[in-house]
Amino acid sequence: MVSTDRLLAFAAMSFLLIVVPGPSVLFVIGRALAQGRRAALTTVAGNTAGAYVLVLAVAFGVGSIVERSVLVFTALKLAGAAYLVYLGVRAWRGRGSLREAFAEDVSGAGSGPGGLRTFWEGFAVGVTNPKTIVFFAAVLPQFVDRAQGHVAAQMLLLGLVFNVIALASDAVWGLVAATARGWFARSPRRLSLVGGVGGLTMIGLGVTVAATGRKD
Question: Count of CB atoms within 10 A of residue 31's CB?
């Protein structure tokens, strides 16, 4: 199975991607601001379930193709790295949009969907999150030890690690947003800083993805 070193390295890279505010985080924050803690945590649960569907798709479909073909792997890795850099640049240039998202969600507070609908909307965001799709397709296969066999099982384990970290991180984002609405609203610079740091982190992650990977 996956060695401890690979598992820790994957967890570290996953954490870097997860903590950057992206579509899923913004959606969770919006629900927290508009509807409170329960809606935020329900959204997180749905989001996590959607993300794990992507893990299953990679483990039993795309992952096997990538694992067998160096050419496909390299093309996918470079495309993924380029997209991560693009997302980072866009996040940096539009770091004020996080503030706007907060303002819009606060103004729309009070009329939200029920719990089941909230879950499924979170699921839809998770399963279509471009950051997660790129990460699972281009990065996850790099941490599989093919010599150990059971490639799909290794991917499922790595995906589980990612989702546990995502569950904890997104829940924290949601709880913080639900309890600190006034603190964020009083300081637009704080929101811009979140977006700016997130953008730089995404750019760095993209460069790392492009520079690493299997050489066979």
Answer: 28
